[in-house]
Amino acid sequence: MEVKLAQSLQFSTWIDLEKMVMKPSGSLQFSRRSREQKRFQILISSHLQPTRTATATATATSHKPVALKVSCSYKNLQGSVLQSGSFPASFDEALILKNKSEEIEPYLNGRCIYLVGMMGSGKTTIGRILSDVLGYSFFDCDAMIEQTVGGTSVAEIFKLYGESFFRDNETEVLRKLTMMQRLVVSTGGGAVIRPINWKHMQKGISVWLDVPLEALARRIAAVGTGSRPLLHQEAGDAYSKAFMRLSTLLEERSEAYANANARVSLENIASKLGCIDVCNLTPTVIVIEALEQIDSFLKK
Ligand SMILES: Nc1ncnc2c1ncn2[C@@H]1O[C@H](COP(=O)(O)OP(=O)(O)O)[C@@H](O)[C@H]1O
Ligand SMILES: O=C(O)C1=C[C@@H](OP(=O)(O)O)[C@@H](O)[C@H](O)C1
Description:
Its EC number is 2.7.1.71. By secondary structure, the chain is of the alpha/beta class.
């Protein structure tokens, strides 16, 4: 069976003019000013046409860019298109991820990255990939709290001891983690409500995974609310239950999430990539955007 999927991808990077190899398929024109600066930012957008061949045992995917657009920005001035057309070179998300993480890692100076965001925003999923590419260790606050309370699940902790006991443990776990280096930490969705937690997280870089409510509710409805006690109260089907409760929580917390040093908006990624549904964004694409946003924060 052969399935064709089209996907657009966009990323920016810095290149040194001396390192540029001109391809015979196209020439790039640079202004004298940008030639003098020797280093400038290019924006590459590509329309990928992967061909997925599914067999009974394996699924092989190969990416073949069918269209590539290269634009150049100079000292924050809007980029102009330098070249567009079909390029024979092939690359994939994994390579971009690797390059971007290698570029940023030295500038982090070992600082921890704290992922904040609503339940189901992908803090654990994204955090694992991010830690992997940066060569960092991954810690999940909820899992650490469960360990601290003798292997009791978050849902049980809420039931047996109440939310404030859980929150005290959450603060203590965060305090301990902020004394370490080279960690990606997935915080619990409610960690942002206590100012003391922000004080701890200020030692590193905080990143808000901003995911639209519909997508959050869809993800949570798919896995169930069993492990998320704050979603247990509502009546109705799984999606509506999750949606109703999450919307109240988001209203209470959105200002707190906005304190984060960097924001990764799935709506922004989708509109950049020309993707209609944020649910189609792969974790890898989201991690690339997270690295971009961390990079922007570091440059500020
Ligand atoms: N980019 C994504 N696309 C599709 N599903 C995702 C994505 N990111 C996370 N998920 C799914 O959403 C659910 C919640 O993700 P998780 O990483 O546990 O979120 P959090 O740690 O913020 O609560 C999981 O079932 C996960 O597989
Ligand atoms: O939003 C919240 O208040 C909570 C989110 C959960 O973590 P996740 O965001 O990892 O699901 C967990 O800490 C607890 O159920 C409370």
